[in-house]
Each structure stands twice: as C-alpha cells, then as structure tokens.
Design goal:
It is a single chain. This protein is mostly helical and about 100 residues long. About 80% of the residues lie in helices and about 0% in strands. The protein is flat, with a radius of gyration of 17 Å.
Length: about 100
C-alpha cells in the first residue's frame, strides 16, 4: 500500500493516542482493507509507524511517571516499580525464548 510520509506521521500520532487501525484508515480516508493488511504485516512501514507511535507515547508517559517518582510521589514510585518488575519479567522471558540465557 502506498502511503505518504505525512500520513505515516499521522499514523504514529494517532496510534499514540490509542486509535485502532480501522479508525486511522478512516481518519486518513484511505481504503480500510489495504490499510489493515499493511498494518498486520510485520515489518511494513505502516506496522512500524503504528508501533513506533504507541512506543513513543508510552515513553513520554513513563518519563513523566519517573520524574514524579524521583520527586518522592509514593504512588508514582509504586507504579514505576510495578512497570519495572513487569518489564524485567518480560526481558527474562525473551532471553529464555531466544536462547540467550
């Protein structure tokens, strides 16, 4: 599927605010079926842009959470630790599944 660079930027932004692929296709006014196929294809530019947008948004949230935790906000510290523990677990799983341990 042909998609313009500015549309890829919009895919990133919309994915970052939790729009689904159908909604993004409608927003961009492009054929839904073609967009969904490209979105579902690992490594496609649309798939990469979608996941990059989600990751960038989550990183911004995590940075703010970390800053709140550093200032002594107890709730933020607990949330940050919970996220860290979950990511540590996922990293160990990845190492095991990839034969890196």
């Amino acid at each position: 599927m042909l998609i313009l660079p500015e549309q890829l930027q919009e895919v990133e932004e919309l994915a970052g605010i939790n729009y689904g692929p159908r909604e993004i296709a409608k927003y961009l006014d492009i054929p839904e079926n073609g967009f969904l196929k490209a979105w579902a294809e690992p490594g496609s530019v649309i798939n990469k842009a979608y996941h990059k947008g989600q990751l960038m948004a989550q990183a911004q949230i995590d940075l703010k959470l970390q800053e709140s935790a550093k200032t002594g906000n107890l709730t933020a510290t607990q949330q940050w630790q919970k996220i860290k523990d979950a990511r540590d677990f996922e990293n160990v799983k990845t190492k095991l599944l990839e034969g890196l341990l």
